[in-house]
């Protein structure tokens, strides 16, 4: 018969195992790509192509104007997306949104609910992966001190929706938003203090603000359940920061993945083809997808990353 201490230990272990958080474990890291850069593609076609390049996972974009905006996707089409993810062995680690935390709070909560339901409907469970709903939170850095408590309060409600529907909400730091530093994002995590509000880590935004990569990783990886990768560099002829495909800028991805391994982080690193790149004349999503894979996959192999074995493409 169990004593009380043994029971509590086992119950706590079960709770931790049930929480949808990436962290120390097998240290398996996937490489994914979203349909964010494939706005004109049918979703099933985008999934098939992404798998054919060699990626392990697909991120689906739920923003207005994309074919996977939840209000546009019928029950029948949701079944087709789920079937395609299963057929091509693609995990679904993330659902991409852009929800301004200082906007209409009630509307934002409903938008999160719609997105989470969409994710549950289309996820095939490949690799045992369940998606997170990820978004940056908008706002401006100059308003941080005045608005940070309100933001934390609203994020608590976001986390509660995530808890009630069994999907974490993950927020991204952005160099043009309220949480433009890793310290600000970590502050929000501590204030909300919920496993259902996590971080999507995207170093390019902290790099744009001049932060050290290792320091930002040390601060945020304990809260991170999904990673977005792209690259960038400062313009030489004008102020600002140019967003690039991963491997085309100044981020050291050998050091990046070594840090993930050292930290014992497991999850998916998903390539983001930025809106800035998509807006350039002659933008080619096929080239962007293949070029990013050719830059990052060899780096992962070089540093000894164990990738998932579920891909069929």
What does this structure look like?
With 313 residues, the protein is α/β, with parallel strands linked by helices. The chain starts with a helix and ends in a 10-residue tail after the last helix. The relative contact order is 0.16. The chain is globular and about 50 Å long. Helix content is 44%, strand content 17%. It has an eight-stranded parallel β-barrel, surrounded by five helices. Strands 8-9 form a two-stranded antiparallel sheet. Helix 5 links the parallel strand 4 and strand 5 (169-172). It has a single domain, classed as Divalent-metal-dependent TIM barrel enzymes (TIM Barrel). It has eleven helices and ten strands. The protein has helices at residues 4-18, 43-53, 75-87, 105-122, 144-165, 182-192, 203-208, 213-220, 253-263, 275-278, 285-303; strands spanning 29-34, 57-61, 91-98, 132-136, 169-172, 197-201, 224-229, 231-234, 241-244, 267-271.
Rg, alpha carbons: 19 Å
Average pLDDT confidence is: 91
Strand line-up across the major sheet: 1-2-3-4-5-6-7-10
What fraction of the residues are assigned to beta strands by DSSP?
Answer: 15-25%
Biggest beta sheet summary: 8 strands, parallel, barrel
Distance between termini?
A: 50 Å
Low-confidence stretches: 1-25
Q: How much helix, percentage-wise, in residues?
A: 40-55%
CATH fold topology: TIM Barrel
Count of discrete alpha- or pi-helical segments spanning 4 or more residues? 11
Assign the CATH class. Alpha Beta
Order of helices and strands: HEHEHEHEHEHEHHEEEHEHH
Which structural class matches the secondary elements?
Answer: alpha/beta
- Number of domains as seen in the coordinates: 1
Q: CATH homologous superfamily - what is it?
A: Divalent-metal-dependent TIM barrel enzymes
Got a strand count?
A: 10
- In CATH terms, what is the architecture? Alpha-Beta Barrel
Shape estimate: globular
């Amino acid at each position: 018969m169990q004593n009380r201490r043994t029971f509590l230990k086992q119950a706590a272990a079960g709770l931790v195992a049930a929480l949808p958080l990436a962290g120390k474990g097998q240290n398996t890291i996937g490489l994914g790509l979203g349909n964010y850069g494939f706005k004109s593609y049918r979703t099933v076609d985008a999934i098939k192509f992404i798998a054919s390049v060699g990626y392990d996972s697909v991120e689906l974009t739920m923003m207005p104007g994309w074919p996977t905006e939840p209000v546009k996707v019928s029950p029948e089409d949701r079944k087709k997306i789920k079937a395609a993810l299963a057929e091509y062995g693609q995990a679904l680690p993330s659902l991409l949104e852009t929800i301004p935390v200082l906007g209409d709070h009630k509307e934002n909560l409903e938008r999160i609910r719609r997105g989470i339901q969409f994710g549950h409907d289309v996820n095939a469970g490949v690799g045992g992966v369940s998606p997170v709903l990820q978004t940056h939170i908008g706002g401006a850095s100059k308003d941080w001190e005045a608005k940070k408590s309100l933001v934390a309060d609203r994020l608590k409600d976001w986390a509660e929706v995530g808890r009630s529907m069994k999907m974490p909400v993950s927020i991204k730091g952005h160099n043009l938003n309220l949480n433009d530093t890793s310290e600000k994002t970590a502050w929000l995590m501590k204030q909300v203090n919920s496993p259902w509000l996590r971080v999507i880590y995207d170093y390019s935004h902290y790099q744009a603000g001049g932060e050290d990569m290792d320091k930002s990783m040390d601060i945020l990886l304990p809260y991170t359940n999904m990673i977005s990768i792209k690259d960038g560099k400062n313009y030489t002829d004008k102020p600002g920061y140019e967003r690039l495909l991963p491997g085309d800028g100044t981020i050291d991805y050998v050091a990046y993945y070594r840090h993930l391994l050292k930290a014992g982080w497991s999850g998916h690193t998903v390539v983001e083809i930025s809106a800035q790149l998509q807006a350039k004349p002659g933008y080619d999503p096929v080239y962007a997808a293949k070029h990013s894979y050719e830059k990052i996959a060899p780096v992962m192999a070089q540093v000894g990353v164990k990738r998932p074995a579920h891909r069929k493409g």
